[in-house]
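Example: C4-type zinc ribbon domain-containing protein.
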Amino acid sequence: MKADPAVQRRLLDLAEADADLNRVEHRRRTLPELEQIGQVERDVQAKRDELVVAQTAFGDLDREVRRLENEVEQVRAREQRDRDLMAAGGSAKQLADLEHELQTLARRQGILEDELLEAMEQREALEANVTRSREAVVAAEERLAEIRARRDEALADLEVTQTRRRAERELIAKALPEDLAALYERIRAQRGVAAGLLQGSRCGACRIELDRSALNEVREAAADEVVRCEECGAILVRSGEPGR
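Written out as structure tokens, the predicted fold is:
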């Protein structure tokens, strides 16, 4: 295949555009924010789970406190009823029974009030734990939102670069002869890098030095001859300078 040397050198612009587009894709896949988002999402979920555990423990104890408060109120109401009955008078046996019941109620009330005080102290501690857990969730969610915003900004920048370079690439490719462009695309599909500048004896595509015989063949080829690297198959673009 033959092509004007100046046209062949346009392949380097095309290869550079493709390299830029590949870097954009690599950058998109390897944004540090992507890994950070995964880590922070797991942290958010863990803190949400901790909050649920804290809220459940608080809810259970809060119900226990209300139960004890109700029992204390019931004992007090029973005590007041017995005192009212004693004030109204009655037989000696009735009064003795009421006195005995009042003593029992007093002991029961004392036990319940001690249990209630302990439960309320525990509830206060658990309520503080719920508050801390909720604040931890909010902080983690804010951190996640911040990283997602950075990711979105980086992706938007990459999209702009990709769109611009694709447009530039399309213009370059359209300006090439169809057969040369087709050869380039075929090599790119097979090898990845389809063209490179011959730098001394080194292929600019694969960075491997050509052996003496291959190098002589390239140098002896006509300027408009499309030559390829024997190592990677890429089109070798000669600079046009003597001996290159």
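The chain is about 75% helix and 5% strand.
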